[in-house]
C-alpha cells in the first residue's frame, strides 16, 4: 500500500448500521456501529477483481475460459451436503475495506471522472457489485481447498441510498461491508461508501445486496455457512435482514403483475384519465394533455450494446456491474432529457437479476420516466438480451432509479392501461424511499 493509503487506513472505521433511510449528516463517533478491530488488510479497488479470479480460478485470458471452467468441475466433492456441515461464521469474518484513492492516485481519476467534474456513479455500481461478491466469498471461505467450490452471483440489489448528491474526483473513497444475514443458500450483504472530507471519512452511500451461492458449475444451489451473532447490535442487523426478506416477499405477492391495483391506485388512474379528456367532445377517445404534462410514451430512450468478452465476470458471463452501469447511464440521460437540467440519483432499488447475460449477446435497454412529483423523477429501465443467431428477446433485469432535478419537472401521464400500471409501479417505488431529500442535497460540494 502507498503511504497515502496507509494514512487513510489509520482513519478508517467500519460503519455498518441497520436501516434504509437517507442520512444527510457527517459521521458521528457516538452512533452505534460495528467497528471491526480484527479487519483484514485493506484492499486497493484494482485488486478486488484479481482477488475474485484467484478465489474461483478464473483465467485472465478469454481463450483459456473453457479450460478454467472444466477445472472447476473437479470441485464438486468439496460442496457441503447440508448447511449444518459447514462451520459457522461471524460478521467480522467477512468484513472488508476497499480503497479507491482518487486523491492520492490521480491516474485513477479519468476512469471515474464525469464532464461535470464529479465521480461516475455507474463506476461505483460496478465496484459495489464486485465488492459484494468478494464479501460473500470471505464468508464462505473453505480453508481446505485453494479455489472455492461455490459460485457466488448477485441475485438482487435491494436498496442503494445516497446521502450526498455528487462526489469529488479529487478525494479518496473508502468502501466497507460485511455479510449481515444468511439463509440456506443466500446472503444479504451491507456495504457503505465514504469520502474523505476535512481529514475524516463522511458517509455518502448505503447499499444492501442479496447474493446467492451456486455450485462450482453455476448450475444449482449450494449451501452457505451459518452466521453466529456476537452482540445485540449484530442481532439487530440480522433482524433487519429478516425484515428485508419479509418485505420482499410481501411486495412480490402484491405485484401489479399478479394483483389488481388497490382502491386508491384505481382512483388515481381514473382521475388522471378524466383530466386528459377533451372537454369540447363527449368522447373517451379524444385525449389532451393538461398544462405542464408529458405523455409517458414520449419519455423513452433506448440503447444497444454488444456484449464483448472484455465485460465478462469471473464465470464468463457478462458482469452484472457493467449492466447496472449501462442501465444507470441511460436512466440518467432520460431524466436529464426529461427534466431539462442535471439530475442527481437519490435511490436505486429492487434490481432483480432474472437471467444471466452470455458473452456475445445483444443487450437492449429501454428507459422511460414512469412517475414524477415536484423535483423527483422515477425512471424505469428494462433490459433484454438476444443472441446473434436467435431473434427472441428475453428479459434479464428491470431497474428502478429515483432522481432529483434542480428544477421542478412536468407531470407524466399514461395513455394505455399498461402504462398506467407502469405509473403505479413507479409511484410505489418512489413512495418506498425512506425519507425526503434535504435542500442541501442539491448544493455542489
Oligomer: single chain
In terms of DSSP E residues, the strand content is 25-35%
Mean pLDDT rating: 83
User: What is the CA-atom radius of gyration, in angstroms?
Assistant: 23 Å
Side by side, the strands of the main sheet go 1-2-4-5-6-3-9-12-11-10-8
Question: What is the H-and-E element order?
Answer: HEHHEHHEEEEHHEEHEEEEEH
Largest beta-sheet characterization: 11 strands, mixed
Give the structural class: alpha+beta
Q: What is the fold's blueprint, element by element?
A:
Layout: H1 3-11, E1 43-44, H2 45-56, H3 65-72, E2 96-100, H4 109-112, H5 121-139, E3 151-162, E4 173-182, E5 186-197, E6 200-214, H6 232-253, H7 263-275, E7 293-295, E8 301-306, H8 320-339, E9 343-353, E10 362-373, E11 376-386, E12 394-405, E13 411-413, H9 417-431
Parallel strand pairs: 1-2, 7-13
Antiparallel strand pairs: 2-4, 3-6, 3-9, 4-5, 5-6, 8-10, 9-12, 10-11, 11-12
How does this model look, in words?
This protein is of the alpha+beta class and 445 residues long. An eleven-stranded mixed sheet has the order 1-2-4-5-6-3-9-12-11-10-8, with helices on both faces. Strands 7-13 form a two-stranded parallel sheet. Strand 4 and strand 5 form a beta hairpin. The two termini are 28 Å apart. The N terminus is likely disordered.
